[in-house]
Amino acid sequence: MKFQSSLKSISALAVVVAISGCVTVPVNEDPIASLKEKADWKMPDGCYPVTSPFKSWYGPGGGKRHIPHKGMDITAPEHTAVLAAHGGQVLFAGEDGLDGHTVRTYAGKDITGNHIYASYVHMDSTLVKTGDYITRGQKVGGVSSTGAWGGRVNHLHMQVQANNHGEHRFGKGGYISERTAKLVNPQSYWYHKESSEYQVVKHDEGINFNDQPGVFRGFSYPVDCKK
């Protein structure tokens, strides 16, 4: 009887969690990411700025948000090239009403065992297809403001998620469900050499990222710079 009672309690708890939406996505603790999130990152010369960071209450155009920002926004002229900030595989490439032209990718597993997913949102088009394998620096689209959430301000919205089990599920809007992969700060996952200062790098700086299939090495800058 005790066993049946325990099962009922567990089932009831599962129902409460499902209704409330309070689902904990397991993510391995990453002290490196924690340090990088607090770091004073230096931007590469000639690159367009991050105008709305993760959890900001203000959009790239200065308007107040209803909820904290779920990614980071980089404001740049329309059609500026959006570049894959990592190697990996395209999980979704297409258009949805809220996010406009979007590419969602699996970037691989990091050194702590977390699986990293990255989305490139509000673009002018998608230049890759679902299932494609991409390389760092490959053009995947262009900066724009497509989708209902584009806000009529040309920018790239980059959203990053992580889990420690390597499985994901898509929500109704074509996004990667937050129930299966936790939202994380993209700026905690910049590529960084231990011996160097906190300097964001462009994909074309002659750096050997040592990219390998299924391995996440950190993000290079996802928007083509002016020089």
Produce the secondary structure layout.
Elements: H1 2-20, H2 31-38, E1 50-52, E2 72-75, E3 81-83, E4 88-96, E5 100-109, E6 115-123, E7 133-134, E8 139-142, E9 155-163, E10 182-184
Antiparallel strand pairs: 1-2, 2-9, 3-8, 4-5, 4-7, 5-6, 6-9, 9-10
Keywords:
single chain; about 230 residues; alpha+beta; eight-stranded antiparallel sheet; two-stranded antiparallel ribbon; about 25% strand; globular; disordered N terminus
Count of discrete alpha- or pi-helical segments spanning 4 or more residues: 2
How much helix is in the residues?
Answer: 10-25%
The value of Rg in angstroms is 18 Å
Strand content: 15-25%
Oligomer: single chain
Annotated CATH homologous superfamily: Glucose Permease (Domain IIA)
Q: How many structural domains are formed by the residues?
A: 1
Task: Give the tally of β-strands.
Answer: 10
CATH class: Mainly Beta
Order of secondary-structure elements: HHEEEEEEEEEE
Task: Indicate the overall shape.
Answer: globular
Descriptive account of the structure:
The chain is of the alpha+beta class and 227 residues long. The protein has a single domain, classed as Glucose Permease (Domain IIA) (Distorted Sandwich), CATH 2.70.70.10. It is 12% helix and 25% strand. The protein is built from two helices and ten strands. Strand 5 and strand 6 form a beta hairpin. The longest helix is centred in the N-terminal third of the chain and has 19 residues. It is globular, with a radius of gyration of 18 Å.
